[in-house]
Give the backbone structure.
Amino acid sequence: MLKGSMVAIVTPFKKGKVDEKTLEKLIEWHIKEGTHAIVPCGTTGEASTLDYEEHYRVIEITVKTVNKRIPVIAGTGSNSTDEAIMITKKAEQLGADAVLSVTPYYNKPTQEGLYRHFKEIADKTGLPIILYNVPGRTSLNMLPQTVARLREHKRIVGIKEATGDMKQVSEIIRLCGRDFTVLSGDDFTNLTLLALGGRGFISVTANICPKDVSELFNAWERGEIERAREIHYKLEPINKAMFIETNPIPVKTALALMGKIKEEFRLPLCEMSSANKEKLAEVLRVAGLIK
């Protein structure tokens, strides 16, 4: 169930509020373009600035709009174990198929603390859990040995690895086995991770190139390695452009330039510098995404 191109979907805003109609349109576009799963309320979805009701509403809209056509993997992580449990239970009530749970940020637990945090969430909730390791955001790296311990829990089914470290990814797959779902959390590693035995990616770039990102995975699945490689190199300039400023500033700006959403963020995120916006626009023009 949990494989392929999974978009870490943006949360569109309009006049300070969640733009529900635009979110629905984005989801329909993704399904039409071949995206394999929707991941609302992640880093790219600006979950850290959504209040509880908004967080739940975004999940609810996603579940209702998708209507069982593809999986919905709701972001429910927190640096508080009790809060993560609460949000995960609500996602289950709202009909999500699985959850994405980030390593606790700011308080920097030990590896033992990480193990207990995720085990407690898994013990007290009912959905499949994908762990999310993103040291660039959390200043904390969950080691492969800790992942292997957590893999023993029946509800912990995979991990989104956003370290960019293929040695670490390889060690996770070696320790956890091929039936444990390992997903790329960095678009520039998507193809490499598939070659190591990963099952897909939770993608930022898929927000603006859903067909190409899903086709990269599909081509690999069909054994068309050269086709997958071709798409990888086509997407590389876009992957790079998505991080010329802090995610999700570039991807939301790109979607605005494409006419998909309003160019609106929540503080402390703000609009791109004019110089970087022009660099982004040039990448999009070369890719044929804007004129």
